[in-house]
Amino acid sequence: MDKTSNGNIVHVRGIVKSFGNGADRFTVLHGIDLDASDGQILMLVGPSGCGKTTLISIIAGTMHAEAGQIEVLGSQLDQMKNGQVTKFRAQNIGFIFQSFNLIPTLNCAENACVPLLIQGMPYKKAVDRARGILEKVGLGDRWKHHPSQLSGGQQQRVAIARALVHEPRLIICDEPTASLDAHNGAMVMELFHEVARKPGRAVVIVTHDNRIFKYADRIARMNDGRIVEVHDVVAGIVPEFDH
Amino acid sequence: MLRLALKMLFGDTAKYVMLVVGLFFATFLMAQQTAVFCGLMRWTTSTLKNIPAPLWVVESKVEQVNELNPMRDTDVALVRSVDSVQWAMPLYSGIQRVRLANGAFKIIQLIGIDPATFAGAPVDMVAGRLEDLRLPNTVIIDELATERLSENPGDPKKHIKVGDIFEINDIEARVVGVCKAMRSFTGGPYVWTTYERALQYSPPQRKMLSAVIAAPKPGISMENAAADIQRSTGLRAFVNRDFTFDSKQNQIEFNTSTIWWYVKNTGIPISFGITVLVGFIVGVAISCQTFYSFVLENMKHLGALKAMGASNGILCVMLIVQSITVGIIGFGIGLLGTSMFGRVALAKQQPPFFMTWHMPVVVLIVILGICMIAALLGIWRVSRYEPAMVFRG
Predict the structure, then answer these.
(1) H/E stretch holding B35
(2) Cα(B175)–Cα(B186) distance, rounded to whole angstroms?
(3) Which tens digit of pLDDT belongs to each residue from B173-207?
(4) Do B11 and A104 make contact, defined as CB atoms within 8 angstroms?
(5) What is the dihedral sign for C-alpha B375, B377, B380, B386?
(6) Do the Cβ atoms of B14 and B330 come closer than 8 Å?
(7) CA distance A213 to A197
(8) A114 with B4: Cβ contact below 8 A
(9) From the CA of A214, how many Å to the nearest CA of chain B?
(10) DSSP characters over B198-230
(11) CA dist B180 to A103, B47, B122, Å?
């Protein structure tokens, strides 16, 4: 099954999540409903502590929700066992992290091919495929470089290559431009928009950076654990949010 | 993933070197100290190796070869009278004092053997003739004695050779041969002479016979012959065969009995055991601490791998491969160091060094155990790490 029951890549309903125990118990998400459509870039925006990262962690299957339905690519993550969710993540989800999380002792191609190696692909074949993706993100001639030899923008491009190398159907990005200056952030988003956005795939981005809102197809604003507004972005025109 | 695991390990040079050095020291301390201990214990049985008679008949209370109680000369005849004995000869073995040409004194292990049959004579002569031992006031010395009993041990030209003379208890001893022999536990070189002359060289006592060396008749096992001698004479008969861990052999096998006596009655095993334990603790402390710190430093990356779909199983295997790899490298270098030490020790004949194939195997198992403990610490930490943490920086 490739899509959820309503045709979306991500379909979550009534997500509730709390942290702590007893008097210290604190509810972070209050019954979140959210969809991410095929071929769409969805941005989750909102102030710090509003629950954005918790929500994408639950969508990505790296955290359990207390209540609610989580359907990703037609699979009910909330009903799967841990091992099944881990395998599902390996096959279907690409990740881009705020601090890139590249392994410093591996070169670009080795870093980019990690998702393929996790799936059991032979090393040489995986590196060859990663080199192909690195070509697409403009780092074809630097595949042997180590992360420390690259700029922040180049490192994030390696992270994009890593997120795309296994052709995932859902890409989860956590503040992909937060560690980059304006110029590099724009370059990375241009590239990302170009190589990641395509039919059959959804991209969910958590960001504070309003400079990149124009790359979204849809923006959902969160506050205090709730989605308070959802806007479509048409022709790169970003809507004004109520504050 | 295993290749990546090794690249992650080798890429962190400081931690990698620290781990290998820790395991090298652990291996070296454990293997070298155990080999020196075994070598030392082997030295305690050197008289049995240098006088390779199949059966040793000694006074009934004797437990080890370096502490022989005197017997009557007639005990030789008593042993000969036992049906299962083919031959039996007297043997003198005792520590005596030698006066060197420069007036200094050194101790020797004096061995007196039967001049007619030369039973108990040196096996490997390197100079001179064994038969010359029948000439008056003659001795055969081992290679160590050529150096130890010389005026200047540091000068090879001054070393004792065939034809030289020294004094044992003020009685002249002329060297007629040099032989190879295993070093004694006391450090004194071996000097062979005839039984009667050995009694002349030694201060007189009422009973002077140290042991009767014997052999069983063809077709009779050494154990049965020893049992027969014990039953018939009331003396204690030991079989001269290599050390074994079989506790039953303790009562009948002289090497085993001698070594167990030293193990039980001296602090030597405790002293060496403590050093081996220190080696183990050094290995555990350095390896576990360094590997755990390596895992902690890589936790962010391991967490990212976990988020990307690497199972706990994959990460466990990665950590085990990393720890076993440093273990094998550290063990290899440690064993190489031990071997080099052993080569030098054997060439110089000290300190004692004796290594069987069991020792490296046991040390390897211990080192891999240390690595598994280190890996388990990391696995415990990684398995508790929530992949969602990677989104929180």
Answers:
(1) helix B13-43
(2) 22
(3) 999 999 999 988 888 899 999 999 999 999 888 89
(4) yes
(5) negative
(6) no
(7) 15
(8) yes
(9) 23
(10) HHHHSPP-S--B-EEEEEEPTTS-HHHHHHHHH
(11) 62, 13, 8
**Which of A220, A222, A168, A219 minimizes the C-alpha distance to A195?**
A168
Closest-CA residue to B43 (of B66, B63, B70, B61): B66
Calculate the CA B231 to chain-centre distance. 33
Contact B11 A89 (CB under 8 A): no
Q: Are B85 and B79 spatial neighbours (Cβ–Cβ below 8 Å)?
A: yes
Classify the C-alpha dihedral B263-B268-B271-B274 as positive or negative.
negative
Strands in B211-339 per DSSP E = 211-216, 236-239
User: Position B123: which residue type?
Assistant: V
CB within 8 Å of A120: residues ≥ 6 apart: none
pLDDT at A117: 92
Q: What whole-number distance in Å separates Cα of residue B175 and Cα of residue B138?
A: 6
Q: Does A60 touch chain B (CB under 8 A)?
A: yes
SS3 B348: helix
- Check residue A240 and report its DSSP letter: P
Beta bridge partners of B196: none
Residue holding tokens 């509810």? A27
Residues of B in contact with A144 (CB under 8 A): none
> What gap in Å lies between CA A58 and CA B342, rounded to an integer?
61
Closest CA to A164 of A156, B7, A51, B26: A156
Tally DSSP H helices, then E strands, for chain B.
12, 10
Q: Which of B76, B18, B107, B42 minimizes the C-alpha distance to B289?
A: B18
Mark out chain B residues that contact chain A at CB-CB < 8 A.
1, 3-4, 7-8, 10-12, 298, 300-301, 303-311, 314, 386-388, 390-393
User: What's the complex ipTM?
Assistant: 0.84
- Contact at 8 Å (CB) between A3 and A9? yes
pTM of the full structure: 0.79
> What's the confidence (pLDDT) of residue A125?
93
What tens-digit pLDDT sequence spans chain B (393 residues)? 888 889 888 988 888 898 899 889 889 988 998 999 999 888 999 999 999 899 999 999 999 999 899 999 999 999 999 999 999 999 999 999 888 877 888 899 999 999 999 999 999 999 999 999 999 999 999 999 998 888 877 888 888 999 999 899 889 999 999 999 998 888 889 999 999 999 999 988 889 899 999 999 999 999 999 999 999 999 999 999 877 776 666 678 899 999 999 989 988 888 888 988 888 888 888 888 888 888 888 888 888 898 888 888 999 999 999 999 999 999 999 999 999 999 999 888 788 899 989 999 999 999 899 888 888 888 988 888 888 787 765
